[in-house]
Design brief:
Elements lengths: L2 H5 L3 E5 L10 H14 L3 E5 L1 H11 L3 E4 L1 E3 L5 E3 L3 H10 L3 E5 L10 H12 L2 E5 L3 H10 L3 E3 L4 E4 L2 E4 L1 H8 L5 E3 L6 H10 L3 E4 L1 H4 L1 H14 L6
Parallel strand pairs: 1-2, 1-12, 2-3, 3-6, 6-7, 7-8, 8-11, 11-12
Antiparallel strand pairs: 4-5, 9-10
Helix pairs in contact: 2-3, 4-5
Length: 227
């Protein structure tokens, strides 16, 4: 069965932790991936070559691999080069996600990078978008699936999905994986009813630091403080 078919109408869980977070590291993320697999996740998204390799061996699930790279100015780009994509594919990634934002701070030209990954590495490519314009450009160049990764909205206690963006992306006629700001099951159900191919949930499941901060922000919003 095709990788995208295995992900269709299922929940993908993003297992990631930043370098300054207590759960950072491949073994922690592999354990997290195994836990969400037991809970019913149909796929995993993770950051890092070692994480891809270990999680793939432990779960066998379809795996979306990314490599977050930060420059000297502190700007981040997802899988900015063919070399990064190659390392992820060799480690076992079934799909490689690439930052396609118009405002991405650095990286190889998308019109060269995206086709090369598909043709030379024989893996599927997911376009991590922030806007409908990003999605349209990626579709024109050629990708296997679009994702609303950067297309979330801010609210009083954190972030939430941008359903208007998701609707526009789905209308392009390419499989769309909804991602970014999903915190509640009801939001996931809504995305599927709109026509999303699958949905990625990350922080709400796998990042206790961010989960705790969200609860604390809610308390602060209501001006509830410790005495």
């Amino acid at each position: 069965m095709d990788i995208l078919e295995r992900l269709h109408n299922g929940l993908i869980v993003s297992c990631q932790a930043l370098e300054d977070e207590p759960l950072h590291g491949p073994m922690f993320m592999a354990a997290m991936a195994r836990a969400v697999q037991l809970g019913g996740a149909v796929g995993i998204r993770t950051n890092g070559v070692t994480e891809v390799e270990v999680i793939k061996k432990m779960t066998g699930l379809p795996l979306i691999g990314i490599k977050k790279v930060t420059n000297d100015a502190g700007q981040m780009c997802i899988t900015p080069s063919f070399t990064h994509a190659q390392e992820l594919a060799w480690a076992g990634a079934d799909i490689v996600a690439v930052d396609v934002r118009k405002e991405r701070p650095f990286g190889e030209p998308l019109e060269e990078l995206l086709p090369r990954i598909r043709q030379e590495l024989k893996v599927q490519v997911m376009a991590d978008c922030a806007t409908l314009e990003d999605a349209q450009l990626a579709a024109e160049i050629g990708v296997d699936v679009l994702a609303s990764t950067f297309g979330f909205q801010h609210n009083e206690i954190g972030i939430e999905p941008d359903f208007a963006l998701l609707e526009g992306m789905i209308a392009l006629g390419i499989p769309v994986i909804a991602e970014g700001g999903f915190w509640y099951p009801e939001q996931v159900v809504k995305a599927f009813k709109m026509g999303a191919w699958s949905v990625v949930v990350g922080s709400a499941i796998t990042r206790p630091l961010e989960i705790t901060k969200r609860f604390v922000q809610a308390l602060k919003k209501e001006e509830i403080t410790q005495e």
